[in-house]
Specification:
Length: about 525
């Protein structure tokens, strides 16, 4: 490999910008001209990006730099050109267990990146944060859901209410990792995109359905890629190389998620594992009803991967690091099978998996056991707004089996606001026997769990579930550890004719929507159908 520290272009424009692909150095910064319309500066003292000029317009924010978290602090920062084809800048923090890489290619308006960590990073999260000029890029991810301009914080420092009663939070810009390979912010003349191709999330935590902040619109337009955080955290951090990932500039067109980063194998990037040292898993996933998305998830304490199952049941994983993995199959986001598989470098391992979900007889069911509350009342909006938003429907309420739809039953219940939920249902004489009541939840806050009563019978308090010390439903999150609760309802509590289930909340917590709460997946009463 030919390394050179010489400048690749000899003709300079004003303010140190290069006339062709190349690197130049001053006492305080490295300047990279991609010759693709993007010129960017990196601070030599700390690795921050201090200028982002695209097609002659400055897009870097005016008050703060772009970089990892709020900055790496004092760092060892070096730059080199490699084989006349790449410019690599390495920033190794002196105080954090982080080494960050920037890479540029000729004629490509993209900053390729990777972030290597050896431990958890203070203050408990790891993110790339580009602080961009809001006046040039006013539109955030999912439009204005994260636009806090003119609004007032009312829950913590990150959730805002606007004068029209609508709510805003940067968490409302999030999407599931399995769906989020490209997201960006835009203006009339340009757009800036985060691209997380292939196995970019392999060393992150949380699995395929993890969601985290993508943008926030305020005095700056903030564009993120969260690699790890404490936001509804369900598993420990993984350490090693995060990425490769990229930040790409365009005139507005959305880039493909199929971004080739194989050239990182030529750049001496710590922790990078090339395709030749990886293996994969393929097979058939069966037993998930056709109306549900099926997902295969493979993970251990070093890496995580996932893939969607085709309509015919076939699946093939991304290229994976060698090792022994837990293998799960999901119906939607609901786990229905679990196995293990060994991945060997250079090999494709054949492994089938089949749903083990039981299929009991039910008197009735509200919602679907798919790990998501989206079909229930307010479930179609909860990802993008606060439960108190004026656009939300009421909470609590009454559901009548055989007449109401799933959209009439609340997707969440709170101990100190919104009231209980009731389900009216009828039984005939042959159904008045001991029956099983099953309530599935996807996320609990402040120990919230279901209280259930039918007639004179009250179900036993199941006890507080495992705590996730993070706000959930008020910041658009619905996935946690997923608890299933069951009770035997004695025949003595039931009657021939109309019965009423009252569903409430055990737990206290704070006030209103920060009181103890849980998110509903589905509810069913198991037993014989009417005869």
């Amino acid at each position: 490999m030919f390394l050179t520290s010489t400048i690749l272009a000899l003709t300079f424009l004003s303010d140190g910008a290069l006339a062709a692909f190349g690197l130049t150095t001053t006492s305080s910064r490295y300047k990279v001209d991609t010759n693709g319309g993007l010129v960017f500066d990196v601070n030599r003292a700390n690795g921050d990006v201090t200028s982002l000029v695209f097609n002659g317009v400055e897009y870097q924010g005016k008050s703060k730099a772009s970089g990892i978290n709020s900055g790496l602090g004092t760092s060892q920062v070096s730059a080199e050109t490699i084989s006349d084809k790449y410019i690599k800048i390495t920033a190794k923090s002196s105080s954090l267990p982080v080494t960050h890489y920037y890479v540029a290619k000729p004629d490509d308006p993209t900053i390729y990146m990777a972030t290597y960590i050896t431990g958890e990073v203070d203050p408990g999260e790891l993110r790339w944060l580009a602080r961009l000029r809001q006046e040039n890029l006013p539109t955030g991810v999912h439009g204005d859901v994260g636009n806090t301009i003119g609004c007032t914080a009312f829950e913590g420092k990150d959730t805002f209410r606007c004068s029209n009663g609508q709510t805003r939070c940067k968490m409302y810009t999030s999407d599931r990792f399995i769906d989020d390979q490209v997201h960006g912010v835009s203006g009339s003349n340009a757009a800036v995109w985060m691209v997380m191709p292939g196995t970019a999330c392999e060393t992150s935590s949380g699995g395929p359905f993890m969601r985290d902040i993508n943008s926030q619109t305020g005095s700056d337009q903030e564009l993120y890629w969260y690699m790890n955080s404490g936001h509804v955290r369900t598993e420990p951090w993984r350490f090693g190389l995060m990425g490769p990932y990229a930040m790409r500039f365009s005139k507005g067109d959305k880039p493909s998620a199929d971004l080739d980063t194989s050239f990182f194998g030529d750049l001496n990037i710590q922790g990078y594992v090339p395709s030749g040292q990886r293996g994969s898993v393929s097979g058939s996933a069966s037993g998930v009803p056709g109306e549900f998305e099926a997902v295969v998830h493979l993970y251990n304490d070093k890496a995580q991967y996932w893939t969607k199952v085709s309509n015919g049941g076939a699946f093939k994983s991304p290229l994976m690091k060698p090792g022994t993995y837990t293998m799960k199959l999901y119906k939607g986001e609901y786990e229905v099978a679990k196995d293990t598989v060994i991945v060997t470098a250079g090999s494709e391992t054949a492994k089938n998996i089949s749903s083990a979900e039981s299929n009991p007889f039910v008197v009735w069911r509200i919602g679907e056991f798919d790990g998501k509350p989206l079909e229930l009342k307010n479930g179609d909006t909860i990802e993008r707004m606060h439960p108190s938003d004026v656009r939300m429907g009421s909470w609590g309420g009454t559901f009548t089996v055989g007449q109401s739809s799933a959209r009439d039953f609340p997707m969440a219940l709170f101990s100190k606001t919104g009231g209980n939920a009731k389900a009216n249902f009828s039984l005939n004489a042959s159904q008045v026997r001991d029956l099983t009541l099953r309530v599935g939840t996807t996320l609990s806050f402040k120990g919230g769990r279901p209280s259930v009563a039918i007639g004179s019978w009250t179900g036993k308090d199941p006890g507080a579930p495992k705590l996730i010390d993070s706000r959930g439903v008020t910041r658009g999150a619905y996935r946690g550890y997923r608890e299933i609760y069951t009770w035997t309802v004695p025949a003595s509590a039931l009657k021939n004719g109309q019965n009423t289930l009252t569903l409430g909340v055990y737990g206290s917590g704070d006030q209103d929507f920060l009181s103890a709460n849980y998110i509903v997946d589905a509810i069913e009463l198991q037993g014989p159908s009417a005869t």
